[in-house]
Write a structure and sequence with these properties.
Elements lengths: L8 E6 L2 E6 H5 L6 H5 L7 E2 L5 E4 L6 H10 L7 H14 L8 H15 L8 H8 L45 E3 L12 E4 L3 E3 L12 E4 L2
Parallel strand pairs: 1-4, 5-7, 6-8
Antiparallel strand pairs: 1-2, 3-4
Helix pairs in contact: 4-5
GO biological process, one term: protein ubiquitination
Protein name: BTB domain-containing protein
Pathway: Protein modification; protein ubiquitination
Length: 220
Amino acid sequence: MEDSNLPSLVRLSIGGKKFCTTIDTLTRREPDSMLAAVFSSRHTVYQDSEKGYVFVDRDGKHFRHILNWLRDGVVPTLTDSEYSELIREAEYYQLLISHIGLIEGISSVLNKRKEDEKSPAELTHTDVIKCIQSERVKFRGVNLSGLDLSKLDLSFVDFSFACLKNVLFSRANLRCAKFRDVDAVGSNFHNATLRKEDASLIDCSFCGADLRCAHLQWIH
């Protein structure tokens, strides 16, 4: 089909579902996609001569999302399973060539969704303060992710097996605190006191933790 014979308005039949769009929509955002190739005479298309529909042998369930992406570049809000289906269609239509393709856009949405669904801390800042007023405080196996525990006296506290991701321990007193098998990824120990006298720091993950100016005293 030659460009000169193609009207600016295009009627598509995607697996029997009917759509109407323009050549500009199909070719402008993703010029190297399969759809752009079809309407640039690089592929053979099958057109119903009576009704004027160009037929594409794919499930038309998500094609409206494909068209909306080509029109405005916005990723639709769908369930995870629907995103999986849409990714398969995006791969078929080769919508991954532009600066931020549809597949990359979906991946960004899914990653953000996972971040938002992460379990919040089981205790609040106030809960922690109440707990440390008693003796022999234990937060064994407790999720304290993201809490601000800066400047608190947490000496002798047992954090064994706890989740301490992104916890702020800045200027906290952690003398003799127990950190056995904890996940402290991304935590901030800036200017904290971490004296290993009878404390335990065994099998801990401190990847990305900020230990700048932390007062570390190792006694063997």
